[in-house]
């Protein structure tokens, strides 16, 4: 499998297969939203679009990063989200990096959104699809965010090598600028457990697939079969 690792601004052409990585915190939050029962997540282009979608669908839950804000129901924090019942709900998510990265590759034939919590399921889906070439979108810090790059490199390795040890990749993420900012209170809308929750390897058994549906980018969980069902690894 040929793997490329690029920042959002470096995306010059539409990739065939894209894995958009945001460990801290958009796609850890998305995975927790599904674990809490959400049916789907609409990735919004802007705060205004998120609010407009919420206004036309009052039963949807609007989520943004940063501090709580009028019109929004939720913040971009796994620690805060894990006690919310989202059974059957649609979540509209808008964040600084993760949702922007996913929308930047919305024309790709396969778009996966990932963090460490869904790393193995994501790698397994790539193996199942026998993807020759995969573009990993490192969403944070203009493609330099080490928590995202480490996770992307781990998934790329795990997609081709059984038994890849995650420890060094998780260590890099734990020592990233984002982890420090979340721990030190630089970022807002934060729960004290957020960093630890973002570093939970394979917490969930599903990958997350984003598809264009009626011009909206919709994220849904995709349950992956166990290793014993795989022929290749
Ligand atoms: O919520 C996050 O962690 C960040 C935004 S900020 O850095 O806290 O302002 O957004 P994300 O898109 O999840 O990286
Ligand atoms: Mg991030």
UniProtKB/TrEMBL annotation:
<protein>
    <recommendedName>
        <fullName>Probable 2-phosphosulfolactate phosphatase</fullName>
        <ecNumber>3.1.3.71</ecNumber>
    </recommendedName>
</protein>
<comment type="similarity">
    <text>Belongs to the ComB family.</text>
</comment>
<dbReference type="Pfam" id="PF04029">
    <property type="entry name" value="2-ph_phosp"/>
</dbReference>
<keyword id="KW-0460">Magnesium</keyword>
<dbReference type="InterPro" id="IPR005238">
    <property type="entry name" value="ComB-like"/>
</dbReference>
<dbReference type="InterPro" id="IPR036702">
    <property type="entry name" value="ComB-like_sf"/>
</dbReference>
<keyword id="KW-0378">Hydrolase</keyword>
